[in-house]
Amino acid sequence: MKLKEILICLSLTPSCFAVLPLVINTWPFQDATSTAWSTLCSGGVALDAVEKGCAQCEKERCDESVGFGGSPDETGETTLDAMIMNGDTMEVGAVGGLRRIKNAIGVARAVMERTKHTFLVGESASVFAENMGFPAEDLTTNQSLSVFKKWLMENCQPNYRQSVSPDPSMSCGPYKPCAMIQQRRHQFIDIHAHDTIGMVVINQAGQVAAGTSTNGARHKVPGRVGDSPIAGAGAYADSAAGGAAATGDGDIMMRFLPSYLAVEQMRAGVDPSTACRIAITRIKKYYPSFFGAIICANTTGSYGAACNKLPGFSQFPFMVFNQKTNGPIKETVDCV
Predict the structure, then answer these.
(1) Which residue range is the domain that position 280 belongs to?
(2) Where is the signal peptide (predicted)?
């Protein structure tokens, strides 16, 4: 490239520096990135790298929003959501509301490879996991119990219920929050209550895989499943086009299938950064104050990201590992 072209490239997006293989994931979860990369380097396929990378976050309880011991629901229980997608075959495995099993991404892959189904939920998903040999373990920790007790002491605020009559037989909800607290709830956005690790891996041959893992929204109504395990919402992969993964307010984001939209944009020739922005802008049109971000990568190894700008949240961090970075690096994108 000529000097002028290089300077122009530097002023644009990371898409200029396309190279394979590639690992990219939401948030600065460096160990997950490194684990995925080392899996590729040791001969693992893209699907292996996604599974091992997300599993690393589950073990480390990244930001307390992935894996066990985080985001207790209204009853104090932690449940897990995860999905994995093979961009070569378009196969998907997913679990929602998984109980007692720490390795949610592993169970999701078992659903994909050991059944003819795509998505298992709740207690039945946990029983399936146990049948597949995954150990049953307590997902509650002293920390998650502390978070739950503090929430109860604050009269269960913030919460996800609205326009519900009080029920004096229950210690917390269903009930109608007072106007002042409800207004405060909508004004305050805790980004760490919505974290998900979303990962896209593309190997040297251009095979694409994507996956997610999360413990969901903190203080959610029991039974709630967010966008993370929904194919096309939490993540999407197609080896003919690319992959994408999202993080944020899943109850809103799943309505727009942002990962699918971004991949379809890349299929049409749109660069990854623009594809991500299009997906975010589509949601923003209807929910201008939603919290969310997305990462995208096409089959050449070009990548990008986008996020919705909010007070106190103007940049979104994500991790990248390829041969040019020569290690896991944190990048940021300005929100729109």
Answers:
(1) 11-139+190-334
(2) 1-18
Of the residues 196, 212, 214, 299, only one is catalytic, namely: 196
Annotated binding residue at 224? Answer: yes
CATH code of residue 21: 3.60.20.30
How many domains does one find in the chain? Answer: 1
pLDDT string in tens for the chain (336-residue length) = 334 433 334 444 444 458 999 999 999 999 999 999 999 999 999 999 999 999 999 999 999 999 999 999 999 999 999 999 999 999 999 999 999 999 999 999 999 999 999 999 999 999 999 999 999 999 999 999 999 999 999 888 888 887 776 665 666 766 665 543 444 444 445 555 557 999 999 999 999 999 999 999 999 999 999 999 999 999 999 999 999 999 999 999 999 999 999 999 999 999 999 999 999 999 999 999 999 999 999 999 999 999 999 999 999 999 999 999 989 999 999 999
Neighbour count for residue 206 (Cβ, 10 Å): 18
250 is in an annotated binding site: yes
| Global pTM exceeds 0.70 | yes
Q: Is residue 301 part of a domain?
A: yes
Residue 160 maps to a domain: no
Contact present, 144 and 66 (Cβ < 8 Å):
no
Residue 196 known to be catalytic: yes
Ranges of beta strands (E only) in the chain are 22-26, 80-86, 91-98, 119-121, 197-202, 208-214, 235-238, 242-248, 292-298, 303-307, 315-322, 329-334
